[in-house]
Amino acid sequence: MDRLTSWERRTSVALLAIGVVFLLSWAIPVLVPNLPTAADTALWYLQVITWALFTADYLIRVTLAPRRLRFLVRNIPSLLVVLLPLLRPLWLLRALLLLHVIADRIRLPLRLRAVVYVSGTALFLCMVGSIAVLDVERDNGNIKTIGDAIWWSLTTMTTVGYGDRFPITAEGRLVASGLMIAGIALAGVVTAAIASWFVERFERTAALDRRTEAGLAQVAAELTETRKALADLAHTHNMLRDELATLTARLNS
Amino acid sequence: MDRLTSWERRTSVALLAIGVVFLLSWAIPVLVPNLPTAADTALWYLQVITWALFTADYLIRVTLAPRRLRFLVRNIPSLLVVLLPLLRPLWLLRALLLLHVIADRIRLPLRLRAVVYVSGTALFLCMVGSIAVLDVERDNGNIKTIGDAIWWSLTTMTTVGYGDRFPITAEGRLVASGLMIAGIALAGVVTAAIASWFVERFERTAALDRRTEAGLAQVAAELTETRKALADLAHTHNMLRDELATLTARLNS
Amino acid sequence: MDRLTSWERRTSVALLAIGVVFLLSWAIPVLVPNLPTAADTALWYLQVITWALFTADYLIRVTLAPRRLRFLVRNIPSLLVVLLPLLRPLWLLRALLLLHVIADRIRLPLRLRAVVYVSGTALFLCMVGSIAVLDVERDNGNIKTIGDAIWWSLTTMTTVGYGDRFPITAEGRLVASGLMIAGIALAGVVTAAIASWFVERFERTAALDRRTEAGLAQVAAELTETRKALADLAHTHNMLRDELATLTARLNS
Amino acid sequence: MDRLTSWERRTSVALLAIGVVFLLSWAIPVLVPNLPTAADTALWYLQVITWALFTADYLIRVTLAPRRLRFLVRNIPSLLVVLLPLLRPLWLLRALLLLHVIADRIRLPLRLRAVVYVSGTALFLCMVGSIAVLDVERDNGNIKTIGDAIWWSLTTMTTVGYGDRFPITAEGRLVASGLMIAGIALAGVVTAAIASWFVERFERTAALDRRTEAGLAQVAAELTETRKALADLAHTHNMLRDELATLTARLNS
């Protein structure tokens, strides 16, 4: 285990905590519009601090990475999250992914894990998407309350898209794009999990192909013949033994 | 079989009957708005009685459960159905699930059973969803008749979502969420069933992998060599026998 | 082959021809609204005649069926098509299905056949759905031209559902339901065909399971040991032969 | 390798370059509406020249094809692209497909390649679809800016279809149809890739069917018996050898 992995494991819980703090400091001003100025400023400072911590973590990871260039290429999402304010809530997703490394030790069956991940990711994206869209759409658009925002997120992720609520700002549409694509991918995972379950069930009962069976039957037949050959050999042997007995009898007499 | 399972089996038909009565006592006042007050009151009492019966059944099951805590955790949906009036029509779903235990004995092929379940669940959810949404949306929203409600349910479950009808109350949106997610899951089951059928068909004709065939061919080749070795042994034997025959001849002469 | 199957085979081409005539006699008055009265009446008579022929075919099939009750149960859709005017265009679908029996002899690969069927069915349903919805919605709804109707069919079957066009009559909504469900099923078939292709590709390269390989390796190892045992036996044999040679030498001397 | 394939390989890079030039000469006037007349005319000439080059390439390929009729049938899309101005941007897709022949040598794992192709195709179609729909809808419809057009493309390809933007011209609806069908197919590929991944994972752990195991166990059992037979034979042998030793001893004495 190299130093980067070791660092990532040791910081995963802390990062998750910081992620939750960041999410709260970002979500509360959006959800409670008439916050007293003092609280608003405090939350803003908290947001800046958590962002600084995330950036520091990213820089430390760059330093620790054994192959720096490959690390940079593979962690373009992390860089984008550091640089773009809109993507920042996705930090929490990374923190959750790190926890997954730990959770791996509790060996849940793969399909149940898929269900847990899909439900968790869907809920998280719906929540974050709702807050994000409310933040950018409240002033101009037709998404004015958190209830509307959650409802819109749901109709978007399920690709229902009634059209009673929809984003009109560029940022809102960006959030929507993410939710749409995530929704399709999550629906795909659900379908795929059911399909693989069906396939497995049918495989187990429909059993193996005739060709293998034929191959095995051929092997068994050949073995039977081998044993017949051995029996013939044993018969020859017995005859030999009888002849030797006769010989001995003759020599004795 | 423990006492809980025995209780659940014995009560399943009764529970289904109560579920149907509950559904009717809940649906009729929604579908027939101008019901005479007497009938309305009667139906309301019926609803209360069926609810009481369901609650009693739940409490009895809690008492009978061998591991009470695990029962409570696994039956959180049942608890929610008992506590939340909006979820109450889903009792019937549980009753149907119980019937499935009995239906299991008639061994329908898995894929046909999937089709029957999907169609049945889709129909049931569409029906219950339509009535539920009509109940909460009639006074404020744009879903005013049962025709509109069924149409809206269909466009929601298939994720078409024209947007000519949509819920505006929180309860209506909750019903909609359920229908959307159920719709995606049901479409996933349909796709998965077709996919597994395709996979099975192709498996059967495309046959087994070359590696197994190669492995079996290797086994067969090795067996052929074994038999060749046995033939050689038999040859040596015959020579031995000839030599013994010569020896015997010499001794006789 | 019983008499029913023989009848269905012999009439399939005629039935397809009648189906096309029926479709034209039903579609032309919808597509060309200001038809001269004479042509309109002629087409109406044509429609009645083709309907009579279909009904006659159904009755003959009922008579020919070896197990009449089972035939009635399995052909409920046919009965519905005979009884309900709205479903009548689906006769053509049955006629197409009959052609499929003939087409079966040209052995197209299963997946290509799936693609051909899905595309064909989608096109046919879109066409018939557009004409049907135009017929019932033209006077009241917002689907006024065949262009609008085709556009609406497409947005419905793909579950996009913009909501710029939608049916408002009960008949139009019934047509819409059919298109939605057909669209989901067809998308499911497409997804399933791709999935099975992927599975097949990966199966072929990912090869067989380690357990089979282990099993085969065990068989091979056991065979190697068998051969070693045979070699030992041959060695003992040779020693026996040497001893006999010595014995012969002694006797000779 | 026949002359047609050789020509297609040698021209693929040039064709891609011409495709890019064509795309730019077609996209720039749409994206920058108030272009100076000189630039507009220059781009129009560029468009004509690239179209002439594509047509020349098509005619050369027709000439080189070994079986001309089969080539014409299989390349109906190419012919349509040459004849119909609306489909012309799809030339680039063909050029990309040719590059794929080269890219085939870099052996990416099949599933990763599927992801790259789906993402690439989705992005390309979204981009081309947005420009095409903006071109035909700007004057009459409700898609007035490239931002609206991209947003509409996304909501169409993901089948969300809010209905805040939709095409109203026949050409725009044709573009929409292409995007819808492409969107469903791409979502199908994503689902299928995940499903095949699941299936593969489960196959590897769930292992082979009991029947094969049973077959192999039978083979192993039969081999064990073969070895027991050989051991018996060896025992008889040893007895024979002892008897011969006795015989020799007798003769010596």
TrEMBL record, chains A, B, C, D:
One term of GO molecular function: voltage-gated potassium channel activity
Subcellular location: Membrane
Potassium channel domain mapped to chain residues: 117-199
Top-level lineage group: Bacteria
GO-annotated cellular components: voltage-gated potassium channel complex
Gene Ontology terms describing biological process: action potential
InterPro entries: K_chnl_dom (IPR013099), VG_K_chnl (IPR028325)
The keyword Nucleotidyltransferase is annotated on this UniProt entry: no
Mode of membrane association: Multi-pass membrane protein
Transmembrane segments: 12-32, 44-64, 76-102, 114-134, 175-199
Keywords: Ion channel, Ion transport, Membrane, Transmembrane, Transmembrane helix, Transport
Protein name stated in the entry: Potassium channel family protein
Species the sequence originates in: Nonomuraea turkmeniaca
